[in-house]
Design goal:
This protein is an alpha/beta fold and 281 residues long. The protein folds into two domains: 178 residues, Rossmann fold; 89 residues, Pantoate-beta-alanine ligase, C-terminal domain (Pantoate--beta-alanine Ligase, Chain: A,domain 2, 2-Layer Sandwich), CATH 3.30.1300.10. Helices cover 41% and strands 19% of the residues. Strand 5, helix 9 and strand 6 form a beta-alpha-beta unit.
């Protein structure tokens, strides 16, 4: 009955913090899905998970300039608020949509003192200076504003989930809920950045994803994992004519380099026509 009643709710759009406080004040079981827009099925799966486990679900759309280490990347980030609103309304599973302005999030001039520990300057943190400092800062601010019971995040950016979970665990009561990566029929992980790929780029991303899934499955039976990763990386770069930033097997518990497939994930970051994509398997 609770689940069916959701279909009767119309999504309320919230444009400032005062409206946010008033809307959420009566509720103590709120599920939060933070996004930067360009809503796709991956986001919808997070919303559905929240909808099943929380009484109210709020989605935020905020393209955070402070987490972009490349100004051009920020400028080119795909945004279409009208389209996003239409998609979210159609789900009939979102109670509140929060679309804050920059001043709503950064309502003071205090500089962030967040620093990523040296042990965490791996994977994307190694190549995107300042990115995760910006991510942690905005997630701390958003969480304080929304005060959710649960935050739902996809595993596609596992390092982001890992760092946010550790950063927020002593700062708020919210539980961080990891949700499975949603892929299309071509096995490409859904991402707003996929919108920049042409047909040839999509074929390359699909080939890489499909073969890395197989590669990880077979890696369990191989020795010298580090050597095998280097060989595979060079093969993809030469065959697909792409640039791979990293291809590493790491523990899901602490993200340390792993020599066993069990309890580990295979992380990759690569460029197709200057478009940076990430994934893990």
């Amino acid at each position: 009955m609770f689940y069916l009643s959701k279909f009767l709710i119309q999504m309320k759009i919230i444009l400032n913090n005062n409206s946010l406080y008033k809307a959420l004040r009566p509720f103590n079981d709120v599920g939060f899905v933070p996004t930067m827009g360009s809503i796709h099925e991956g986001h919808i799966s997070l919303i559905e998970r929240s909808n099943r486990t929380c009484k109210k679900t709020i989605v935020s759309i905020f393209v955070n300039p402070k987490q972009f280490n490349n100004k051009k990347d920020f400028k080119n980030y795909p945004t279409n608020i009208k389209k996003d609103i239409k998609i979210l309304k159609k789900t009939k599973k979102v109670d509140f949509l929060y679309i804050p302005k920059f001043k709503d999030i950064y309502n003071n001039n205090k500089k962030s003192n967040i620093k990523i520990a040296n042990k965490d300057k791996i994977l994307c943190a190694k190549y995107r200076k300042g990115h995760f400092e910006g991510v942690l800062d905005v997630m701390g601010r958003l969480t304080n504003l929304v005060n959710p019971k649960k935050i739902f995040m996809g595993k596609k950016d596992y390092q982001q989930y890992f760092l946010i979970k550790n950063y927020l665990k002593n700062k708020c009561k919210a539980s961080i809920i990891p949700c499975k990566t949603i892929r299309n029929k071509s096995k490409i992980a859904l991402s707003s950045r996929n919108n920049h790929l042409d047909l040839n780029g999509i074929k390359k991303a699909s080939f890489l994803s499909k073969n890395l899934i197989k590669f990880k499955r077979n890696l369990a039976n191989r020795k010298k994992i580090k050597q095998n990763l280097k060989i595979q990386m060079k093969y993809f770069e030469k065959f697909l004519k792409i640039k791979i930033e990293y291809l590493e097997l790491r523990s899901i518990k602490n993200l340390k380099i792993s020599n066993t497939v069990k309890g580990s994930r295979l992380f990759v970051a690569y460029y197709i026509d200057n478009i940076r994509l990430i994934d893990n398997f």
